[in-house]
Write a structure and sequence with these properties.
The chain is an all-alpha fold. It has eight helices and no strands. The longest helix is centred in the last third of the chain and has 24 residues. The two termini are about 40 Å apart.
């Protein structure tokens, strides 16, 4: 792990995201050079140096960042076939904005702590990754992604409320 690993991952995602929205890959070097010019024009050399170093790194890695942006970046999830029906139904419901159907699916699938873990791992996590990928590819609007996330949070709060009620109080904060 070097100091630019995280930057490289974020920049590869930025390249992919903007490319799906119609930006040419050649936009990035032009934008970075412009920002370098602005930094040089408005900051003292001592302040500009570290910023320009980051920009130079991005310019030097442009070809690699383009290649990385073309590779799938999704997390490898181990999906169990037994959950596929619930998972597919949940994705359809959450994208349709149907909170009641999402909650109904959750209540039908979760009967104990083990099934709650399975539901979270096999339905919620992959569903939200899928929604994020649709948004990243510009197949749904950011508002639709936010709606899906909000419905999921609301559904989880409703689902977990009885569990939380049985927990002992945490004490008082003074």
């Amino acid at each position: 792990f070097n100091e630019f690993d995280l930057l490289d991952r974020i920049m590869a995602w930025s390249y992919r995201y903007l490319h799906f929205r119609g930006f040419s890959y050649e936009y990035f070097p032009v934008a970075v050079r412009t920002w370098m010019d602005v930094v040089h024009a408005h900051l003292q050399a001592s302040s500009a140096g570290p910023i320009v170093r980051v920009y130079r790194h991005v310019l030097e890695r442009h070809e690699e960042l383009m290649a990385r942006s073309e590779r799938p970046c999704g997390v490898e999830l181990l999906l169990e076939p037994a959950w596929s029906g619930v998972r597919d139904s949940f994705v359809s419901a959450v994208l349709a904005g149907d909170h009641r159907e999402c909650l109904s699916l959750a209540k039908g699938a979760v009967v104990n702590g083990d099934s709650l873990d399975g539901f979270l791992d096999q339905v919620i996590e992959p569903a939200l990754y899928h929604v994020g990928e649709l948004w990243e590819r510009n197949e749904i609007l950011v508002a639709e992604e936010h709606l899906a996330s909000g419905i999921t949070l609301r559904m989880l709060a409703s689902l977990l409320e009885p569990v939380a009620a049985d927990l002992p109080p945490l004490g008082k904060v003074v």
